[in-house]
Amino acid sequence: MISLRNDTFLRALRREPTEYTPIWLMRQAGRYLPEYNATRKRAGSFLALCKSPDLACEVTLQPLARYGLDAAILFSDILTIPDAMGLGLYFVDGEGPKFERPVRDESDVARLAVPDPGAELQYVCDAVATIRTALGGRVPLIGFSGSPWTLACYMVEGGGSDDFRRVKTMLYQRPDLMHRILDVNARAVSLYLRAQIAAGAQAVMLFDSWGGALSDRAFREFSLAYVERVLRELDSQVPVIVFTKGGGLWLEAIAATGCDALGVDWTVDLGAARARVGARCAIQGNLDPMALMASPEKVQAEAIAVLESFGAPGEGYGHVFNLGHGISQHTPPESVSALVEIVHSHSAQMRRLRVSASSL
User: Fold this and answer.
1) How far apart, in whole angstroms, are the C-alpha atoms of residue 207 and residue 273?
2) Choosing from 7, 20, 36, 77, which is the catalytic residue?
3) Any catalytic annotation for residue 194?
4) Which one of 27, 229, 274, 280 is the catalytic residue?
5) What is the DSSP letter of 278?
């Protein structure tokens, strides 16, 4: 097995000392990069790109060729699982993902089955293995999945939603059906992430993108409980990051699931999050993606503010710098250069100052 030349990201997840704060970006391989758009055009469609291990590897590596990022993340989509369940995933320009056969009634729920990662989702595992080999130990590789609740939202709504009317109606009127969907999804996510780990993923992330759409009671019953179940099934094989968009109310509860890192969006102050979570897990986040639309100087000032809000690094605390959500397709590539440079340099300076202060 090739040893890692840069394991800063993994050490931060384990809350071990690091020379600087590691950084990677959600959707770091995407439409803001001209080389990504060229590869996607060659593939013919987004789904074709996802389902080609070689092309998925190509776009995964593209941001690493441009920037000194500390981790790669598998290029794929969170809806691969429901697509493998036979729901007929397709994409409409300007509207996002859609399903030909959404899950709306008892008969739809009864037909759901856990897909075999070694069959319907083998192309994802092949992509993980291909990327891991191509990385050659440069940086760690992150695998991922949507959370059981977030997958259910897309499956019941038939696509994205502004009000989640259909899935919430089912949740309140037929909680038994919702729990059956979530049970299938939790088993599918657990097997899927285990397969990615077996193929070479060195950390995994659960995207609970729509957990913040729920009430407190509903979040704990229909989202958090199933995230916790997935974590139990993974049994700490590799570090796990849990990100709930809009989850600032539940930081302590999410940290209590046993995750290794807690992803936070830009609405959360990192210092307050650190105080609430303590040494239970690392924290990942949380620059507003729209800050990258500003000048490079302003981008760097905003990044410094995020680093300073987390506070001085110390034993038992880990910070992984990231955005508070996925990078926008309209982001100037030079803004990312400015961001990565200042995160590395300023966080290293913060550590040097802390060491100097402690030696006085």
Assistant:
1) 19
2) 77
3) no
4) 27
5) T
In tens, the pLDDT along 301-330 reads 999 999 999 987 765 679 999 999 999 999
CB count within 10 Å of CB 117 equals: 22
Active site residue 66: no
If you write DSSP's letter for every residue of 146-203 in order, what string do you get?
E-HHHHHHHHHHSB--SS-HHHHHHHHH-HHHHHHHHHHHHHHHHHHHHHHHHHT-SE
What are the pLDDT digits (tens) for 231-288? 999 988 899 999 999 999 999 999 999 999 999 999 999 999 999 999 899 999 999 9
105 in catalytic set: no
Measured over the CA atoms of residue 150, residue 153, residue 155 and residue 161, the dihedral's sign is: negative
Q: What are the sequence ranges of the domains in the chain?
A: 8-359
- Active site (annotated) includes residue 154: yes
pTM comes to 0.96
pLDDT tens digits, 121-156: 999 999 999 999 999 999 999 999 999 999 999 999
Catalytic residue among 20, 67, 154, 226: 154
For the purposes of burial, counting CB atoms within 10 Å of the CB of 304, is it exposed (0-12), middle (13-18) or buried (19 or more)?
A: middle
Active-site pick, 40, 138, 166, 354: 40
Report, at the CATH architecture level, how domain 8-359 is classified: Alpha-Beta Barrel (3.20)
CB 268 within 8 A of CB 304: no
* DSSP annotation of 327: P
Q: Are 49 and 83 in contact (CB under 8 A)?
A: no
**What residues have CB less than 8 Å from 208, skipping those under 6 apart?**
146, 147, 149, 150, 223, 227, 242, 243, 244, 245, 247
Neighbouring CB atoms inside 10 A of 122's CB total 15
Q: What's the pLDDT tens digit per position in 273-300?
A: 999 999 899 999 999 999 999 999 999 9
For 62-76, write each residue's pLDDT tens digit: 999 999 999 999 999
Q: Under 8 Å CB-to-CB from 326, ≥6 apart: which residues?
A: 26, 27, 30, 289
Q: Quick check: is 77 catalytic?
A: yes
